[in-house]
């Protein structure tokens, strides 16, 4: 019973919510780092409160699920909060606390209610305001001064830096290469060259920064500090002497017999995120006690030891810094050593890193360096389901994410039988955690082109990390295309032979409006498909209707007059083709067996000559019915009484019904009522033959009308009294009660007496009595006995 209740609730919900669910979000959204932000997502179309049994809410970040709600809440993001009570009332928003740069990206809100699914994307951007520092503003003598304005810790990357002198822009400034910090923010230096003007030492210079995070420009003002030129010749001489001594020492060291050499580190020319990297470093003329150490130096701080080989046994452990590194050092013979460092490269971990291979042989140390400068991350792609944009176009979108460097090219087109047509697109670019980038590219395709089943939407992306462009093709026949036609079962009305009927089938949820419907018949014991004769079967030209969600619905009908011999046991098929379908889809009726009945037809009741005391039978013929499931009832209504009387079994006999099958597969029978008419009981009564059948909503019947029964002609004795003769005599005359008019003639004491007895119907001798008081003045009175 619980299952039945659940199913009833589901069907009710399905009826109430069909194609009504709507979702609303706000994109893009911005928040300052360190703040809290609501990512708003609301939905409607189900009523005031959603039934939690049918409600599922999911949030995704960069195609990774972070929130799931279905009866309970599951959150996989440490700084995300979700209100399940508000969610049941239509508010599926999430709260993101302590926003960080790593939170930048594409969030998706997905709501599933009953059989409907809606989703929407939100572009999340984080703002970090820049800081300005001008470290050196000292000018020596008349020498030109290059002043640096260091702008740091800003996000996003786009920034404008302007130099001013007394409020007037300087044109000889230059912007250095923008650097990405480990926390995802950016830093950049802008320089300007200033020629000292000793007569105008009070000039005010400014470094002005404009950035998305700043409501007004940030500006640092300063004045140059002038100092006299100092004599540098002695210092230069000393420096040159020191350098000379060092150079001679190095030359002597290399020329010493038995000294060893270290070759440059061999590694891939470019580094691809996620790919394995092997750095190889070799040394020649190495001593037996040679040790090899690998170090990692980030953009800041001192080098850190990764792994070492040689020396104390404890140093041979393969881990000192990170388990992700694997070092293999081998003695190759002839005083040659080789050391490999193997690891998986990640932009977030290794961009800007310098690897150092250090050989220690005897008392000598040599090292080589490998800088991770040419680094790349190949883009990953996540196509989204197409959406209707409300203006006759289909919105296709593609998320390209986790790529580096920033520049990427994305091109959209659609291909039909007429060729390829390039279309414009819109890109929303965001930077994500791990120092990589993401972009959401959208293109709008005219809906009409999808009527061509061969139409394909093509998107091509190019990036420096890829050897050649990559592409993806999408079509209306893809599984994620949301508007494939859905067929309901064929509705079969009550079919009756000879009475026009219509089979109907509803097809809904499809786009574009390009549906083709075919009705097919398979006769009993014949699996071959038959083309329906247009004269006997008609398919009206039913048009599609556009729904509120911009999909289309059509109800197709097959109209015909069922015929038992032609249609009994046949199957009917409704077959649908559409550009979104690889193969047609169809629904079938199954064999029409008992589903093709025929109504019974009654003839008038046959009434024989009825005579009192003599058995007679009323009969009624019923024909043309199917199936053989007929019920007959005989009913009586007495004269002057409209109530129906159940016939006593002893006086009235109803024969069993025996049906006979006809050539057209219908059935025929005869209903009989046998009884012995009785003048007093049956004269003026009406008999009814009533028939019920599965094809009939109400019983049908035939009536006899009031019956007349003739009695047997016999001699009746009449007595005549009267005062005017005082003596009486009798006479006899054969009469037939049942005559409408009867004349009584008798001779009494020579007088012929006549009496017209009118309107005598089924009267026994006791039924007629004409009496009066016994007075002389009254006329004669008569009685029949």
CATH fold call of the largest domain? Immunoglobulin-like
The Rg value, from CA coordinates, equals 54 Å
Task: Write down how many β-strands occur, each being a DSSP E stretch of 2 or more residues.
Answer: 63
CATH class of the largest domain: Mainly Beta
Query: Under the CATH scheme, which architecture of the largest domain would be assigned?
Result: Sandwich
Write the CATH homologous superfamily of the largest domain.
Immunoglobulins
Strand order of the largest sheet: 2-11-10-5-6-7
Q: Approximately how much helix is present in the residues?
A: under 10%
Low-confidence spans: pLDDT under 50, at least 5 residues? 1-19, 311-322, 712-785
**What overall geometry do the principal axes of the alpha carbons give?**
elongated
Mean pLDDT: 79
How much strand content do the residues show?
A: over 45%
Domain module tally: 7
Name the structural class.
mainly beta
Signal peptide: 1-19
Domain Ig-like: 34-125, 130-223, 485-586, 591-701
Organism: Leptobrachium leishanense (Leishan spiny toad)
Transmembrane segments: 232-251
